[in-house]
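Regression test case RT-17, inverse folding.

Input:
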């Protein structure tokens, strides 16, 4: 199990990653951490009662360039329950790269069901150990539409950096 601490403009979040169940996902995330990719990015999507999402945009909704996508390990990962971190992706089940989200509810509809485009689910690869109050605070901010995106925090919330412990 690897530990990472997310330092946000609203506080810190300690997360335990499940490298045994989701080795490719965990290593992908840790490589972005090691390279400092997340430093200065923003939480660009927050939906109260659902999740907070970050890891892909800088201030002003400027999208960052990422590495190639990884294989979806949702079948072997954790369930998308309150406090789990999971990989964000497009409609393509194997399109996750740098973006992640933290569940602020039990989002069972995001779990793996079957190996089809509709049933693949979203790979949860860790869980919050400390700082869930920070996650909830982020999820409850006022949102707006910006640069063609909905649910964007009206005031930017920064991911100052992530450190592996």
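Golden output:
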């Amino acid at each position: 199990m690897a530990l990472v601490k997310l330092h946000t403009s609203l506080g810190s979040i300690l997360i335990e990653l499940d490298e045994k169940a989701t080795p490719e996902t965990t290593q992908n995330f840790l490589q972005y951490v090691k390279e400092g990719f997340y430093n200065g990015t923003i939480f660009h999507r927050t939906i109260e009662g659902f999740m907070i999402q970050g890891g892909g945009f800088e201030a002003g909704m400027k999208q960052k360039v990422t590495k190639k996508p990884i294989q979806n390990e949702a079948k072997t990962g954790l369930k998308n329950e309150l406090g789990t971190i999971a990989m964000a992706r497009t409609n393509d089940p194997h399109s996750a790269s740098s973006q992640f989200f933290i569940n602020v509810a039990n989002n069972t509809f995001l779990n793996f069901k079957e190996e089809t485009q509709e049933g693949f689910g979203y790979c949860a690869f860790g869980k919050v150990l400390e700082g869930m109050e920070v996650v909830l605070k982020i999820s409850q901010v006022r949102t707006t539409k910006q640069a063609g995106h909905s649910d964007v925090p009206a005031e930017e919330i920064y991911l100052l950096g992530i450190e592996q412990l």
